[in-house]
TrEMBL record:
Chain coiled-coil ranges: none
Record carries keyword Nucleus: no
Domain T-SNARE coiled-coil homology: 491-553
Domain PAC: 164-216, 286-338
Taxonomic lineage of the native organism: Bacteria, Pseudomonadati, Pseudomonadota, Alphaproteobacteria, Rhodospirillales
Designated name of the protein: Chemotaxis protein
Assigned protein family: Belongs to the methyl-accepting chemotaxis (MCP) protein family.
GO molecular function: transmembrane signaling receptor activity
Cytoplasm in keyword set: no
Domain Methyl-accepting transducer: 339-561
Organism: Niveispirillum lacus
Length: 575
């Protein structure tokens, strides 16, 4: 085998493994290596390798020159085979290392599968026998495989143009979707023609799912929350519709302006506001409840987090704020705080009233005990009074009976005196009659005397009789006069007695009336005394019940005080 052929084979090994140390790139770049810069400008080959394909960062192709000393060493006739052996061993070790960590699959230029390593087979869920000889499209969604871009993709590879590492969705066995990051690398033969394509891939399904999850979360936040982005000085870079709607602005109204347009001027000039942005620039996030002003000066309250965002070097390059409108909740909380304060004040009043009630209940308890004792004493007194009144009533009844009897007797005396007066009056008539008769007799005696004188001697005897009759008449007249005088005296006395009896009758009638009234009053007093006794007994029972109720009130006020304390604690917890 000629030196040229051996050198070409060595380059092909290097191309397939990417193992020559002179071909290593920096920063995980995909590197296109060419041999056209060798000093003698004789052979050209295209060497493609992939470094750090699992990184997920954009990669770029760069050209690198093979050192002339390395080529001269290979072409040295005396040492070529030894160097080739070492190079082959190094290439095999590198290939084994790559194959152990990366999924590798080889295709014909038209996309027919030649072989694949275990990492690729495990990723896609196939055995080598199941995929060997099949076309690459078995891993591709039918819609993507039918796209003209897919045909151009294999046409580019067949013409020797490598495909940069990119993330692609592929279909594993059973229709399971997987995401891989891989590069398709055409491999050239000694004549510079593509004779196969090597794909080096990494499974990024989990990273993709995590990224999709994070992206979904961010989109969800954007749909449900107000989002705004600032540079490190607080100037607005972007804002979503939720934020703009909340604050009453359009994006062109706020973009490029400072965050302080949403802040009360007093707050914006405070040290705390400056500290907020200093902390954000230092990478320290801030979260809390903030008061902000809309375009028309209306107050809104938001719960927001200011989140410093780091670049790939770990440096803060912007700030993203996520916010939720909590104006209604804050106003409700303020209203609740006012209500709680009012309730607290009412509770204080209730506690004070309960304490006063409790104190009054204690005082009332003592008073009711004293009242109960007094009522018991009064009840005893009313019992005694009732007994006395009953005794007095009995005496008054007896007095009333006696007064009735006296009244009857006085009335009888009055009637008798009336009859006596009537009798004396009648006697006066009789006396008058007797006096009239005596006068007639005296007149007759006078006539008889006159007639006897006329008769002379014959009439002397008649004269004597007339004289006697005249004397009798005179005596009768004198006697009747005395009788009349006595009757007048008796009549006068009878009149006096009758008058006195009348006065006595009136007095007895008055006494009788008073006795009757007194007896009635005493009967009423006796009834009242009995009623008082019954009322005192009932009052005593009522006072005892009041004392019991006062005890209940005292216990209730103590319970109310305890409940008020619990309500205070509950209100404190709510506040």
């Amino acid at each position: 085998m000629s030196m040229r052929k051996r050198t070409e084979l060595m380059f092909q090994v290097a191309i397939r493994t990417g193992g020559a140390s002179a071909c290593q790139g920096r920063d995980g770049d995909r590197i296109r290596r060419t041999a056209d810069a060798c000093p003698d400008q004789r052979w050209q080959a295209r060497a493609i390798a992939v470094a750090n394909t699992s990184g997920g960062f954009p990669v770029r192709q760069v050209g690198i020159r093979w050192p002339a000393s390395y080529l001269e060493m290979v072409m040295n006739a005396g040492k070529g085979w030894a160097m080739f052996g070492r190079f082959k061993q190094d290439a095999a070790a590198t290939l084994a290392a790559v194959s152990g960590t990366q999924a590798l699959i080889e295709f014909k230029p038209d996309g027919t599968i030649l072989t694949a390593n275990n990492a690729f087979l495990s990723l896609m869920g196939y055995s080598l026998a199941e995929i060997k000889g099949q076309h690459h499209r078995m891993f591709v969604d039918p819609a993507d495989a039918a796209d003209p871009a897919y045909a151009r993709f294999w046409s580019d590879l067949a013409s020797g143009r490598a495909v940069p590492a990119q993330e692609s969705r592929r279909i594993a066995k059973g229709g399971r979707p997987v995401w891989i990051q891989g590069s398709y690398n055409p491999v050239l033969d000694g004549r510079g023609r593509v004779y196969k394509v090597v794909k080096v891939a990494s499974d990024v399904t989990n990273q993709r799912l995590r990224a999709a999850d994070l992206s979904g979360q961010i989109e969800a936040l954007g749909r449900s929350q107000a989002v705004i982005t600032f540079d490190l000085d607080g100037h607005i870079l972007d804002a979503n519709e939720n934020f703009l709607s909340l604050m009453g602005y359009r994006l062109e109204d706020v973009k490029g302006r400072h965050h302080r347009i949403f802040v009360d001027p007093v707050d914006a000039s405070s040290p705390a506001y400056r500290s907020l942005w200093n902390d954000l620039r230092q990478g320290r996030h801030s979260a809390g409840e903030f008061r902000r002003l809309t375009r028309d000066g209306r107050e809104v309250y938001i719960h927001a987090t200011y989140n410093p965002i780091l670049d790939m070097n770990g440096k803060v390059f912007k700030v993203v704020k996520f916010a939720s409108d909590i104006t209604a909740q804050v106003k409700a909380r303020h209203s609740n705080e006012q209500v709680l304060a009012l309730v607290q004040r009412y509770l204080d009043d209730i506690v004070q009233a309960v304490e006063v009630s409790n104190r009054q209940a204690v005082e009332m308890s003592g008073a009711t005990e004293q009242t109960s004792a007094n009522i018991q004493a009064v009840a005893v007194g009313t019992d005694q009074l009732d007994g006395s009144i009953r005794s007095i009533a009995q005496n008054m009844n007896q007095s009333r009976d006696a007064a009735e009897r006296v009244f009857a007797q006085v009335d009888a005396v009055g009637q008798a005196m009336a009859r006596l007066v009537d009798g004396t009056s009648a006697m006066n008539g009789i006396v008058s009659l007797i006096q009239d008769i005596a006068g007639q007799i005296n007149l007759l005696a006078l006539n008889a005397t006159i007639e006897s004188a006329r008769a002379g001697e014959a009439g002397k005897g008649f004269a004597v009789v007339a004289t006697e009759v005249k004397g009798l008449a005179r005596q009768a007249s004198e006697a009747t006069q005395r009788i009349a005088d006595e009757i007048g005296t008796v009549q006068h006395v009878a009149d006096d007695v009758a008058s006195q009896v009348s006065h006595i009758h009136d007095a007895v009638a008055a006494v009788r009336s008073l006795v009757l009234s007194t007896a009635g009053a005493i009967d009423q007093q006796s009834s009242v005394a009995r009623l008082m006794t019954r009322n005192m007994q009932e009052s005593s029972l009522a006072v005892q019940r009041i004392a019991g109720n006062v005890g209940d009130i005292s216990r209730s006020t103590a319970l109310a005080n305890d409940q008020v304390t619990r309500v205070r604690e509950a209100l404190s917890a709510l506040a």
